[in-house]
């Protein structure tokens, strides 16, 4: 913000006047009073002026900044070694900026000298070593970019490596250095690019440390981490290392949830070998998990509490790391809670192939994981530009007056596209060549266009690669693991849906989604050992009868499909759906069915919530509860699988929350749904999950938790056969096992 920068410059100049009036020249020999505030003001003034230059691109600003930095360096010639190192480095960065404008070799050579002098003052184990080494690396890389001198590139890589490996420096500095190393080396096709990406991805869990509360962890992950794992995978793919690509995607995505799961890891095998370590880990993990949801009580001193909490939880995090190191020294536990290698990850595809869709600025690819290995399929017809266009079209068409709260009140069937969309030629494609009369277009035409592109560019090539044939009765299971922009696209519904020609995904496959491969490897009680009686099953149904009339119909349908002794119903006049009641029953339920309002908070995903009678049941509160009996969750509400633009690879939405909280199979919605459709889908779905209850009251069937994806496949097929629009049946998806 230029206004803020201008205000900062005025304040810094006032500081200089208050400390002492001095004329600053490049060759000034003035011995001004070495007041700490004056020296800092000189250096900061140079930094702020450089910031303004980055916005306004006025080269005179760079010359002014260099003058102020030289003045600061002059005043610290015989004092404050660590501060002088910082001032020398800042002057070097200013000279680098001028070199980037004029490419004067003298400037960059002086910058190199200043960077080296700065490093010599502080040594190898100073907190600033990482930043100064990284700045030197950036100066060297800029020189290489202009001159193509290989020595400059190799030296840049060496100093990036020094920066990343400096354990005495803050983790944030090391991560930034690793990310910049990866980007620089990758753009120059340097052999170290994959090493750099591995370093950056490896630092992610340490950056978003368990000692932070969940909200701050989310903020850390929003700060410059999006796209890192996808670009890392693309680098590995270009090098032909497909297994490494899968490992990098797994380690660098879903970091938020993998940390939560770390604290809840079963330790049965370790218990037999080192029970004392198990006790220690459980004690620390319990404290860390409780601390993740900490807050300050009214009346307490904010600063005092925050300082004490920060120290306490930083110590707990260090104890956790030390305990893990003890475990990893034991025989057969070397990889305990380490990122999974591919030989372990491919077990996620034991029951069905998993197709990872990677979206990177360098290209889009499919990694097809089976129990035999991984195959790479480039998506040559699809790129980020096309993907972003499809996402925009879906967002425009799915959010126009189609909320469940409309009670199916005839949502608009047409939307107005932007000038940008029209300019891209989309309007012509959507109208199938018909002449344009306005900028509005039918919603179904938008969906038809998007689904056909997804079929041609992505889904059909995958099906052909796997040699899958059409099957009306037994289509095979397939898991989609989308990354980046793919998380916002209805891959499962891809295809051609016209009277003249029909060819679509569900004729070949039963689609499920998974945020990560690891999510398919979480053991589940009723998935691993089928319950032998309905007495073992508890189903909680939450409805919102006051504002969603069809939820009462939905409840009656569920009661006709599900054995009554299993049911606990909330949301009726006799049994209100309060947050405390829902959470209490959620902790013991095998099945949870929510027929209510929901909302997605795009800016703060942890604030997304199910809307209950006494308030919002937020993700941040749901994730505090363990759910040991959880098997199936049906979120018959709006936007329960809608990811956040700010963190597409962290899958922080209601559907994934219940998945990682313990439910192994989740039915959710990518955007808004019709009130009437929720009841229909529930009817068809539970008809398959609980066979025949309505027809034969004496039969008490055991639910088929392992067939929930096929049950939803059947239900959506029935709904689609009624001839309704795409917007009403496409949103429903299955997540998990």
From TrEMBL:
Q: Which residues form the CHAT domain?
A: 451-694
Question: What name is this protein filed under?
Answer: CHAT domain-containing protein
Species of origin: Crucibulum laeve
